[in-house]
What does this fold into?
Amino acid sequence: MVTDCLFCSIVGGEVPADIVHSDARTIGFRDINPQAPVHVLVVPRRHIVNASTVSERDGADVTAMLMAAKSVADREGIGGEDRGYRLVFNVGHDAANSVAHLHLHVMGGRPLGWPPG
Ligand code: AMP
It folds into this structure.
């Protein structure tokens, strides 16, 4: 746990969140400023800064994040072949990455279009 990390505080239960998924390595909670009808952030319990800092030692956490995202999508009703969803890792300034704790955006529930705005 890293002091002054918002998502570490959510993992630790010190900051409230609408948690929709929890397992040994990850939690998932609804984004406070949703950009789609379903917008969940999946984060590792262990502090990792962002996708550009991921190394082999983080492999189990990253795999768990992808499995958690699929579980969330299925439970939210957007996982079927006739639906679909977007998974996003923002990295750095130009991507408007605002929280330095790795998180996977799970977004869906409407046609999202491509490229994103
Ligand atoms: P990013 O721009 O990829 O760093 O995404 C950070 C996301 O965290 C944004 O979509 C914010 O809306 C979201 N966020 C910030 N604070 C909270 C919070 N307390 N609970 C849930 N989501 C949050």
User: Anything to note?
Assistant: Strands lie at 19-22, 26-30, 38-44, 85-88, 104-108. The first helix runs from residue 6 to 12.
